[in-house]
């Protein structure tokens, strides 16, 4: 019998992962300290328990694409595929990186590991043609959306239309998560809370945007609570006024 890695403590009816016509269903998934940080001031990011990682890699195997920001690539050098260490699957999602100036190193794991899995670098008009061409020679799909930073709506439209991405998982970091919330583009939030405190000068889960009041905050509806090893995982659906998203 396979061991259950997470124990469901509370659950209501789960939101189905239905994409919109023009964009994928967007899930934000991240691990935070008890005080809401993705990484400590010293760069510590080991916030997931083994059981939580199993769930995250299982989730990766179910979605069509995973997206992160360039700072996460530079800091952690993740490969963003499903790791056998946690979950065995032949299905790997496509990988998407937001990188306005194409500063991603050519030997980044997201490019070199599992070259059979598509990687998309979403950049802006600030990127040099030379670097764009170098990345394309390596088989990377480089797309230019936006003047200064990546235009998320154009990118999501592209992913839906060109690659039929129905479910996209945004794994961070804070600036990227902040941008998706600011643009009202998040449908579901999975936060794994680790029982540690990081204190000041750490990387917050939502950066680059301010929600001044309870009314201004995206409305989150708790759908499930799970215990994954030492982590408590909170699952929320995100409710927006239908006019904005
Ligand atoms: N605990 C976790 O689950 C978890 C998950 C992921 C990351 N992390 C940690 O988070 C930290 C990195 O987070 P971060 O907030 O510094 O950076 P980030 O969100 O990883 O990357 C942000 C960068 O992406 C680029 N970008 C391009 N278009 C963008 C857009 N529309 N919106 C937002 N960003 C855009 C910008 O750089 P350019 O202008 O140069 O393009 C921006 O500075 C690392 O320490 C990493 O280890 C933790």
Short note summarizing the structure:
This protein is an alpha/beta fold and 245 residues long. The protein has helices at 50-62, 70-76, 109-112, 129-137, 152-163, 174-182; strands at residues 7-11, 25-33, 37-39, 65-69, 94-98, 119-123, 141-144, 167-172, 188-194, 203-204, 219-228, 231-239.
Describe the structure.
This protein is of the alpha/beta class. It has a single domain (7-239), classed as Dihydrofolate Reductase, subunit A (3-Layer(aba) Sandwich), CATH 3.40.430. The chain is 22% helix and 29% strand. The protein has 6 helices and 12 strands. The protein has helices at 50-62, 70-76, 109-112, 129-137, 152-163, 174-182; strands spanning 7-11, 25-33, 37-39, 65-69, 94-98, 119-123, 141-144, 167-172, 188-194, 203-204, 219-228, 231-239. The chain has a 10-stranded mixed β-sheet, sandwiched between helices. A two-stranded antiparallel ribbon has the order 3-10. Strand 6 (119-123), helix 4 (129-137) and strand 7 form a beta-alpha-beta unit. The relative contact order is 0.24. The mean pLDDT is 96. Bound molecules: NADP nicotinamide-adenine-dinucleotide phosphate. The site of NADP nicotinamide-adenine-dinucleotide phosphate (NAP) has 29 residues, from strand 2, strand 3, strand 4, helix 2 and strand 8.
């Amino acid at each position: 019998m396979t061991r259950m890695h997470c124990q469901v403590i509370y659950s209501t009816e789960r939101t189905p992962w239905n994409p919109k016509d023009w964009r994928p269903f967007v899930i934000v998934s991240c691990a935070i300290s008890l005080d809401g940080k993705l990484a400590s001031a010293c760069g510590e990011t080991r916030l997931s328990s083994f059981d939580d990682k199993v769930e995250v890699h299982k989730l990766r195997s179910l979605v069509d694409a995973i997206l992160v920001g360039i700072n996460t690539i530079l800091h952690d050098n993740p490969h963003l595929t499903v790791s056998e260490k946690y979950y065995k699957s032949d299905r790997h999602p496509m990988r998407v990186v937001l990188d306005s100036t194409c500063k991603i190193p050519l030997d980044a794991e997201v490019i070199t590991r599992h070259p059979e899995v598509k990687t998309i670098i979403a950049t802006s008009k600030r990127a040099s043609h030379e670097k764009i061409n170098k990345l394309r020679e390596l088989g990377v799909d480089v797309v230019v959306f936006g003047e200064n930073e990546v235009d998320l709506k154009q990118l999501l439209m592209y992913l839906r239309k060109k690659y039929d991405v129905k479910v996209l998982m945004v794994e961070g970091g804070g600036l990227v998560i902040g941008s998706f919330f600011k643009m009202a583009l998040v449908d579901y939030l999975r936060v794994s809370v680790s029982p540690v405190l990081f204190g000041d000068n750490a990387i917050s889960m939502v950066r680059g945007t301010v929600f001044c009041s309870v009314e201004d905050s995206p409305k989150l509806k708790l759908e499930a609570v799970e215990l994954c090893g030492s982590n408590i995982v909170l699952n929320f659906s995100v409710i927006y006024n239908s006019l904005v998203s």
